[in-house]
Amino acid sequence: MAFKVLVVDDSSFYRRRVKDILNEDRSLEVVGEAANGGEAVEKVKALRPDVVTMDVEMPLMDGIEAVKRIMAECPVSIIMFSSLTHEGATATLDALEAGAVDFLPKRFEDIAKDRSDAATLLRTKVRLLARRAPVASLRPRPTPRPASLLKKAPPQPAKPTRSMPANAPKSTFVRSSTLLSGSKDTAEPVVVSQVQRSGKRYRCLAIGASTGGPVALQKVLTHLPARFPFPIFLIQHMPGTFTHAFAERLNQHCQIRVKEAEHGEVVQAGCAYLAPGGKQMEVEKRAGHTYIVIKEVNSSDIGYKPSVDITFNSLSKIYGGDTLAVILTGMGADGREGCRTLKSLGAKVWAQDKDSSVVYGMPQAVTVDRLAEVNIDINDIGECIKTEMS
């Protein structure tokens, strides 16, 4: 049976365009259309689609209000279509905060140079999101969850990973559940809700994310204290016009300072540097200081701008094994090779667990290759970072 999709846009031409693209995939079926947010709310209740594609700007009820109503009354995975402007970025972030799980530029030319590639990406995203449960639980809390609410269980040592250096400090974890892979060649993740500090030396925290990342990053970073003792490097797959607005939003919600990274600035503890969209973020050491390096890389070999792998590999040259690398929800496998390099130097790697991921692609990639020491629910990652790195 095909996954059901509802297409919402005030333009009949655009609805028809999206419908034609999705219906090319036999596993997808557009079961309805809506011209405004009010119609969308009613049709979600009536048709029970697996995924909704939603325009941001519409008459009568806009996409943001529609997302709020849908997530409150009949939760479903929602992909927003947005213009690549500052206003569009702000509105899209509002929609993600309200419960939407992903977004795409409304102009297909902004998704990919080749229109067929853009259409393929849209179908892929819809298929992936259709396979997962509704995402109402991913809406961010206004305040961090108190440590007292974390699950309790007797502590026990984590399973050693194949590539763990012999002299690496061992952490103790509290196990909450185990995810079965269903595949003979897939590692069985150790899923935990708490950690006991390992005593390992750290000099930086690095976090990579893609689909579902904006909400996930906010959940993690709001747990960190203002005087967090290390610099934080954030890589979120996002267009260049979005990252500045996203950094500003995170900065408003977090105790730590969050900013879009700028070329040539000195890296400081307690500050989170968000890689600019459409570019690559690296670091370099000069005269006893670490500096941010922002590069324009146009190579067709690099699929993501920014790329988690590129930033993680650069961090490995400066911080080596004194790094905690965390891979959050996202499509694909970006970050796997960067984590492989970091882990070979003694770094710790954690991944978001399957149940709390919008898409388990990136976390699964580092888990299957036995690079991630543990999988952790998104609601617990921030507290675990605080415990491990305090």
From TrEMBL:
Post-translational modification: Phosphorylated by CheA. Phosphorylation of the N-terminal regulatory domain activates the methylesterase activity.
Catalytic activity: L-glutaminyl-[protein] + H2O = L-glutamyl-[protein] + NH4(+); [protein]-L-glutamate 5-O-methyl ester + H2O = L-glutamyl-[protein] + methanol + H(+)
Keyword Chloroplast set for record: no
Modified sites of kind 4-aspartylphosphate: D55
Domain Response regulatory: 4-121
Region called Disordered, residue ranges: 137-169
Molecular function (Gene Ontology), one example: protein-glutamate methylesterase activity
Domain CheB-type methylesterase stretches: 198-390
Entry domain remark: Contains a C-terminal catalytic domain, and an N-terminal region which modulates catalytic activity.
Function of the protein: Involved in chemotaxis. Part of a chemotaxis signal transduction system that modulates chemotaxis in response to various stimuli. Catalyzes the demethylation of specific methylglutamate residues introduced into the chemoreceptors (methyl-accepting chemotaxis proteins or MCP) by CheR. Also mediates the irreversible deamidation of specific glutamine residues to glutamic acid.
Protein name per its UniProtKB record: Protein-glutamate methylesterase/protein-glutamine glutaminase
Organism: Alteromonas oceani
Gene transcribed to yield this protein: cheB
